[in-house]
Amino acid sequence: MNQKVAVGIDLGTTHCCVAVMRLGKVEIIENDMNSKITPSYVAFTESGCLIGATAKSQANVNLSDTIFNVKQMIGQKFDDLEFKKKTEFWPFMIKKKNSMVHIKAGSQVKKKLYTPEEISAIVLTKLKQIAEDYLEQDIKNVVVSVPAHFNHIQREATKEAGSIAGLDVLDVINEPTAAAVTYALTKEIKGNILGLFFDFGGSKLDVSIVNIRAASVIDIEVKSTASDNNLGGTDLDRLVVKHLIHVIEKQFKKDIRKDMKAIRRLYTEWEKAKIILSSNKETLISIDSLCDGFDFIHTITRETFEDVCDELLASIIYPVERALLDAQLHKQKIDEIILVGGSTRVPKVQKILSDFWEGKTAKQIS
């Protein structure tokens, strides 16, 4: 294999992955746990640094030194009001330094301030190792995808994270563009397709209208992009956890808002429940000794989830309308609707899009 091979990295809010192009096909590389996705978690312990699934698995017992959602911090001003909303239930400590967000973490003996770039670099180092183990060669060159709304500061910060990890970031490309290239390659598209890429991830919603021309080479033309960087899966999760906190207050007369361990356990169980609700109407959340010895057992329905998040879910169509308007296209001109990101698996999201397109079925690629 060419020693100058480059890999592609999706550095997501909740999960990340690394891929390589071989024999004309995109391969997403499995990690050491035989999974194609790696949780975007970093944990500092007395014995060292944990990354990915091992970091996430001990998060509930190592609250202040397990870092996640770092993508929401990169290149971020500390005093931004929308950003502050996202941090409401973060158990680790963030600090202001030179107007930017920093994270205070480390072993109990020696804590220090980390930049988000430094934490991202730790995750990138893990992805680099995954690629090297699979390809059996050193990896230096990477292309990293970022949200379409990322500004110059955020893009440069992403490049800096790569540099800290010992990587040469050849390019930072928009996630919808990366999705369009992947779609064209994996679906072996021939001819022209006008696609709307609906990328609903952990921290944002990007909608892009992309013209794909596939012949001897693939040509990608992004005709328009509209984003909502205050609407992602983590925003939906925060609303549901607030709802569960209210249920606990009503049922047990207990206020657990300042009990970060209890809240993280709620998040963990809700994450499992949300997956089940994608294919079932209801599921049970059961947590032993959640707080002060009481057990929390609660049935949550898909309908409740949709009601709690109704306002946010209804707003997913606004970027779609803006993208169509900017591209000066009627919705019926769109050949295919392509869903990207874990939050697109929420049935209500799929229904809203289907209703908007009067029954047209969207395609899922991730």
Structural account:
The protein is α+β, with helices and mostly antiparallel strands and 366 residues long. It folds into 2 domains: 188 residues, ATPase, nucleotide binding domain (Nucleotidyltransferase, domain 5); 175 residues, ATPase, substrate binding domain, subdomain 4 (Actin, Chain A, domain 4, Alpha-Beta Complex). Helix content is 35%, strand content 31%. It has 11 helices and 19 strands. Strands 1, 2, 3, 4, 11 and 12 form a 6-stranded mixed beta sheet that branches. Strand 1 and strand 2 form a beta hairpin. Helix 3 packs across helix 4. The longest helix has 20 residues. The model has no long low-confidence stretch (mean pLDDT 93).
Unreliable residue stretches? none
Q: What is the overall number of helices?
A: 11
Tell me the fraction of residues in β-strands, as a range: 25-35%
Gap from first CA to last CA: 28 Å
Family: Belongs to the heat shock protein 70 family.
GO molecular function: ATP binding; ATP-dependent protein folding chaperone
Pfam families: HSP70
Keywords: ATP-binding, Nucleotide-binding
